[in-house]
């Protein structure tokens, strides 16, 4: 029997293995691993030089020697630098601070890309190199595709995590009684909806991972990299949520029959993994909305829209709990006696209310995910 979820798992772990085998120094980057510090120098759009390093000092200075001139760049607790136009990103939440300084080549006196250069930190010098080796002109076509892949990554994640996955959850948690005794292909209709939505969600997430890996040249941007502090958090949370999401189909293959004593263990493990993966994913979305200004433009609105699935999930749980406590929403019980006409009408009425609410929630989820996708797609990040 063909299991598409197995194919997804294989593809995800194949991509992970490719990323892990990449060299520690990204493409078109100069890396200097000294005894005291690790420094990376990259070129952005062939116009801006970005220096990144970690330090435990309250003040540290990295120097670039180029064309007979020394250029000093300071990262300190006070955020001082010789030129206030330099951009600094300092992580104060850890003892080990991530420092990044970006400076345009036009600001660097007598700077020449083709001249021999080296980096200096506390008189520890890097090997010689030329900035022309890392400052390579990217074609407009290449830039276009990379930007497009980043947007496709964001949109697919939004559709997967904010529409398909929550919809599958709603059918699994609240649809059993609404669609009782209704089957498609000899399986309960609620289960078919749950499995279909979840499979589509995991598919979107998996394709999204491919897109961002291609856009970032298969370089790791999470913990242990030289990426921006919030990029590391976003990458870590997104990676964990993706691994947990992809593990759910594998987990479902271990499902035992309802009569088995281990069924409760499976049910709770399946629920906990699902909730954890969703929590990590939404946290990653919040970070992107609040911190990634190149792709996300309306942080407050985007955070509100991203919170819709959580709000609807809690609202549905509270609503059904209240109805159940009032006796208007009762669990269907097996009985040898045929139901009376009044009880049958009441059951049909309850099912109508429940079904209407579930599909209303799914419509709202689709609207929220679509609105977020439009905001991301329409953002001009040139």
Automatic annotation (TrEMBL):
Pfam families: Cytochrom_B561. The gene is Cni-M03A1.8. The chain crosses the membrane at residues 154-175, 196-215, 268-289, 301-320, 357-377. It is found in: Membrane. Keywords: Electron transport, Heme, Iron, Membrane, Metal-binding, Signal, Transmembrane, Transmembrane helix, Transport. One of its GO terms (molecular function) is heme binding. GO terms for cellular component: membrane. Its cofactor is heme b. Residues 1-21 form the signal peptide. It is a multi-pass membrane protein. This is ascorbate ferrireductase (transmembrane). InterPro entries: CYB561D1/2 (IPR045150), Cyt_b561/ferric_Rdtase_TM (IPR006593). Residues 115-323 form the Cytochrome b561 domain. PANTHER family: DOMON RELATED DOMAIN-CONTAINING PROTEIN (PTHR15422:SF24), OS05G0565100 PROTEIN (PTHR15422). Its EC number is 7.2.1.3. It comes from Caenorhabditis nigoni.
């Amino acid at each position: 029997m063909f299991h598409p979820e197995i194919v997804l798992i294989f593809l995800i772990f194949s991509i992970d293995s490719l990323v892990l085998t990449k060299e520690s120094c990204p493409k078109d980057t100069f890396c200097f691993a000294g005894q005291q510090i690790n420094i990376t120098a990259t070129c952005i759009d062939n116009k801006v030089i970005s220096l990144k390093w970690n330090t435990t000092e309250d003040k540290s200075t990295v120097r670039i020697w180029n064309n007979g001139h020394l250029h000093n760049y300071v990262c300190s607790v006070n955020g001082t630098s010789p030129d206030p136009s330099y951009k600094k990103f300092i992580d104060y939440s850890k003892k080990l601070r991530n420092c990044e300084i970006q400076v345009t080549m036009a600001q660097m006196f007598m700077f020449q890309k083709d001249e021999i250069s080296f980096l200096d930190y506390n008189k520890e010098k890097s090997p010689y190199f030329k900035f022309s080796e890392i400052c390579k002109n990217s074609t407009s076509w290449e830039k276009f595709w990379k930007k497009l892949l980043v947007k496709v990554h964001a949109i697919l994640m939004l559709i997967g995590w904010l529409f398909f996955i929550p919809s599958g959850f709603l059918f699994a948690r609240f649809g059993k009684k609404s669609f009782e005794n209704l089957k498609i292909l000899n399986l309960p209709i609620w289960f078919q909806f749950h499995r279909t939505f979840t499979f589509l969600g995991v598919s979107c997430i998996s394709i999204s991972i491919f897109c961002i890996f291609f856009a970032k040249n298969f370089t790791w941007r999470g913990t242990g990299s030289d990426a921006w502090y919030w990029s590391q958090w976003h990458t870590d949370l997104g990676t964990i949520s993706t691994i947990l999401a992809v593990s759910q189909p594998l987990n479902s293959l271990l499902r035992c029959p309802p009569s088995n004593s281990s069924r409760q263990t499976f049910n709770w493990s399946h629920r906990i993994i699902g909730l954890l993966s969703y929590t990590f994913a939404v946290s990653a979305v919040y970070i992107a909305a609040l911190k990634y200004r190149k792709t996300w433009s309306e942080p407050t609105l985007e955070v509100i829209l991203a919170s819709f699935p959580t709000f609807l999930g809690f609202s549905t749980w509270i609503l059904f709990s209240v109805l159940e406590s009032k006796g208007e929403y009762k669990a269907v019980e097996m009985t040898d006696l045929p139901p009376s006409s009044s009880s049958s009408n009441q059951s049909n009425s309850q099912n109508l209310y429940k079904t209407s609410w579930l599909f209303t929630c799914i419509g709202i989820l689709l609207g929220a995910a679509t609105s977020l996708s439009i905001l991301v797609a329409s953002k001009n990040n040139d």
